[in-house]
Each structure stands twice: as C-alpha cells, then as structure tokens.
Amino acid sequence: MNRLWKGRFRWGRLLLVWLVFLLLAGALFAERSGVQYTAAHVQIGALDHALTKEEALAGQAPVCLLLCDSRQVSVAEAKEQLEQILQDMKVPAEAADLADTAPEALPAFENYETIVVLVPNFEPLGLRLLDLMDWVEQGGNVLFAMTPEKCGAFDVVAQKLGVLASAWNCKTAESIVPAEGFLLGGGQRYELSDPFESSMAVQLRDDAAVYAVTGDEGVPLIWSTELGKGRVVVDNIGVYDKVMRGFYAASYSLLGAACAYPVLNSAVFFLDDFPSPVPEGDGQYIRQDYGLSIADFYAKVWWPDLVQLAERFGIRYTGVMIENYEDDTTDPPLRQSDTQPFRYFGGLLLRQGGEVGFHGYNHQPLVLPQTDYAGLYDYNPWPSADAIVAAMDELTAFQRAVLPYAAGSVYVPPSNILSASGRAILGQRVPQVRTIASSYLEDGTDLPYVQEFGVAADGIVEEPRIVSGGMVNEPYMQLAALSELNFHFVSTHFMHPDDLLDVDRGAAEGWEVYKGGLERYLTWLLTAAPGLRMQTASECAGAIQRFSGVNVTLQSAADAWTLTLGNFTDEAWLLFRANEGVPGRVTGGRLTCLTEELYLLKAENAVVTIERKEG
User: Fold this and answer.
1) Angle at alpha carbon of residue 473, lines to 471 and 475, rounded to 5°
2) Which pLDDT value is given to residue 43?
C-alpha cells in the first residue's frame, strides 16, 4: 500500500511537471503567434457603407457665403483652405468672386447666416462694404479670414472691426500664442515656419476680445468684436497653409451664439516597417549607447519602452508589415522563409491590443513605370497592375500564415508614395485594403499621396498621418498637431523601428532623447485633450466613416440649442463652442467640458438638445 502511494506520488509529480511544461509552451506559442482579438478590444467597427463628405452636404441650402477676390495676392490659397475647412465642418457654403461678379451683383447678404471674407484689400467691394457692416449690425456674423490691407476703405470701417489705430507697415508673425480657453493646447507659444511680415500692426479697442497674439511683440492675430446685434471676427495671421486650418476653423466657430461641427475623436500611433525582417549586425549609435545588436535592442529596449508608454497613455499601436526588403518588382513574389521575427514581434503587438496592417510585399511604392522619382528616390516601379496585385496578395497571404488573427485592412504606402494608377489599382483589385494611411501634409514634391480625412468615392477610407518621430525640435509638426487637434480633434503619428539607424531621424541623439520627445508629445496631447480616444487605425477608419457621412444643423433659442444630425448612424462626435450662454442638461448625447467655452459632444441620437443657461 505504501509502495502504491509512492508510485502515485512519483507519477503525480511527473504529471505536474508536464502540465507546467505545456502551459509554458502554450504561452510561448501565444507570444510567437499572436492572440486573437476579443470584442472588448474594438471600440468602434466599420460601416458597410459610408457617404463621402460631398454626398453628406448634397442638396443642403448654403448658409455661408465665401466672398473672395481671386485677383488679389494669396486669395486663391486662402480660398482653397477655407473651402476645405467649411466642408469638413459641414457648413453648406457657396462662393462669390469679385473677379467675375460686380459688387452690386453679389448675392443678398441676408440670405446667409455667416459670411467669410477673403478680400484683403476692401476697395473692390465699394459700397457693398457698408452694406456688409449694416448686415452685421442687424444680427449677421462675418469672419475676415485674411489679413486686411491698410487702405481708405479699411479706415472707413476699421472701428467696426474693433481696430482703434493701424499702421502701414506689417509685423512679423514669428509665433502664435492662442488664449488658453480658446484652443485646446492654448496658453503656449507655437513657432511658425518661415515667418514673414504677414500681420497688420494694429491697436485694438478695449472692448475687442483677443484670442491669439504673436509671442514676441504681442501683435493681435485673432480677435472679435460685437457690432450691433452681430459679431465680427478678424484673422490677422496672413499664413494660409494647410498646417493653419485649426486656427481658421476655431475663428469661424466664434460666430453666432454657438457652433457645432463633427470631429473624429481619435488618436492613432503607427509603427511603420513593423513587423519586418530585423536588420542584421550592429547600429553605430545603438552599440555605442547600449552595447547591443540591432535585434537585441529591439527586443530588450525599444519594444519594452513602447509597451510602457502604451500602458501609461492607453496607446494601442498599429504596425504595418513588410515581408522583405528586396528591390525586385519584376519576378513573381517569393515567400519569406524566416518567419520568426514576424511571429514574435507581431504576436507581441497583437497581445498589446494593437493591430497589424500592410506596408508592402517589399518596400517599393505602388507606382507604374510612368512615375518619375526625379532622382529623389532609388525605388523601382512595378511593370504592370498585375504585378502590384500579385505582390499585395502575397503580403496578405503571408500575414495570414504567420499571424492568423491579424486581419489586416489598412495600407501605408512606403515613404508615403502612391501614384494615381497605384491608388486606382488598390480600389479596384485589392479588396483586402479598406483604408489608406498616407500623408496629411505636403513635402514640396508631387510624390507623396496627400490626403484629407474622409471616405473616397470608391469607398476606401482616407486616413492621413500628420506627425512623426520623436517630435524633438520640430516646430512645424508641433504646430500641425495643435491645428489638427482643434480642427478634426485627431492625432495620427508614425515612427519606424529603424529611426535609430538613421542620423536624419534621430540616431545621433539616441533613443532616450527620441523617447523623451515622444513622451512629452503624449503628455501634451492628453493634457490638451483628456477625452481623446486612443484607437487602432481600423477603429479610426470607422470614426472617419461616421464623420464623413454626418451633417449638422444648429438652431439657437433663448433656452436651448438643438442639433439635428443628418445621416446619423450609431454615434457622432462634435466640438461645440458656446459663445453666448452656458450649456446645461443634455438630451440625446453627452457633453464634456474641454475649456471654458469649448466642449466635446458625443451624439447618441439624431437630435441633441442642450439646455442654454445664462452666463
């Protein structure tokens, strides 16, 4: 009996050892292969069909007149930006151009709720300038979105624009300091790239409300003034680049008793070239700083640090896969034989709650032979559409083989390069790609695929990336981040594992400096916008679909604001600014205070009512 007991004990211990071994093996397999998504990971799903922004606004009567004079300097650039801003804010607008319309033939101002003036020299308006001011006094709202020029016509109405005195010379707008309550991220100085004498030197009346000034001399850049029953807002910035859109959108939102416009409420963090073949050997600065090979640095330093940032800030990364770094675009694609880095790092990414998309079979952009790189890149074109489709199909099959739960749907073009023909091929013949995430800002060439947030006519979601890297000593990207946070309530950021191998991307400064810049950006972002949703790229695509299709009508009464949302599906997010009154109880949605005047509204019904209280 005693021997029987001992035998059972011995076998029991052996069984326990085998059980522990199997558990460890299972954990290792999960780590190497990835884990399946669960419903709790997905914040927002994709819609089967979504409207373009043009479709969302189709048939709506214009409520805004965009009054311009294309003969004047910089008006064309300003008009391009304001048209896009109004479309994204879902403001139905029509344009009238003094270049082909006599002042007396302009539409009646009383037909509109707001007027945006892109006429820096007021002289061509003639007597209609006085009519415009009379319309404001009767309750109209006007935004002078371009820096006014000093002239006789300006002097006639200057007092009504809140200007006490003005000079013939202009001031350099070297930076902008938005008021703390005016913009998310306000109260800080943001540098302007390539500043010049773009702002009128003015002294404002005491009753003018100033919303932004330059950092050096305090030159007023954005202000408003009450005029009778209406309001005048003036932008004195003089810069009409895409990077400034958030300031003009916020200026427009100052018109009227309140303003509401749809936004995304999304922050996405892309890891380009991840997972991908890990470079062999050493990186000069990695070996110098850490005494590690590139592969060991990724596994022991870079990824653990990213996980810590993700846990601290709630990030769920979106990696985009490269199968190989071969330059071959002519031979049939070959399967990558070394799958270990893909299973290992891809599995860690999925376990972290992230997702994996597509970057390329190799790192060659999807362009056909007619594309000319003008000596800027050494990439090879693809010989045909069939070759592009074969490469994308191989990448998709490889991803499914090494990461069966990845279910990629987002494509990031290498170096943000995607030709018109390549883009058409994706839309027509690569159905696994439902979202393209390229570049929001231009680089001075025609090579990047530059996007707007929205849904394309072929149904693909356009999800541009705005900022990148460690954000260290990058005033242009810091300004872009501020602008887009206040325009689309969005942040899309990307970085590469091999940034620390490239001096131009921060290798010499080292990972600690790079990581510190990224940490400061994340701290700024969540301090400025604490309600911002951290999402994967496919979740952001769902948010873009809802943003693209919805439109909004706002009615103001003495005791309430009523928002009616057209094409409402299951939810919509909006920025709401209360210019006259204080929001109270909300029916049909939830309101979160961001600043003393600016709120984030989650609409849960097609009609949202916000109580309006005095204050």
Assistant:
1) 85
2) 76
